[in-house]
Amino acid sequence: MILGTLLACGDMGMADTGTAMPIEVVACSHPDSAFEAVVEVAVEDDQLRDRVAFTIKQGEYEWRTGLQTLDNLTWWTRMQLYELDCRNEFTYEVHYESE
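Given the sequence above, the corresponding structure tokens read:
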């Protein structure tokens, strides 16, 4: 059961494409244990990126990882995190790098 899902859209810039890009989807759940969260991140972009990284924070804890891609437009990751509680407030950031 997914306890929290967040959707965020980045700045569209000057072009009106009808869909704001990038599209970021973050889902947090506890499928196996109340003490271990599963965080799934998916990012779709209309610009080629060299790297996309993800940071999630809750209280004194912070976790970071890089996302995977096959085409530099769609990115994803799945994290299993001890001590993250999806039922409590957390913040996240997606970092984009282009050379």
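The chain has a mean pLDDT of 85. Try to locate this feature in the token string yourself.
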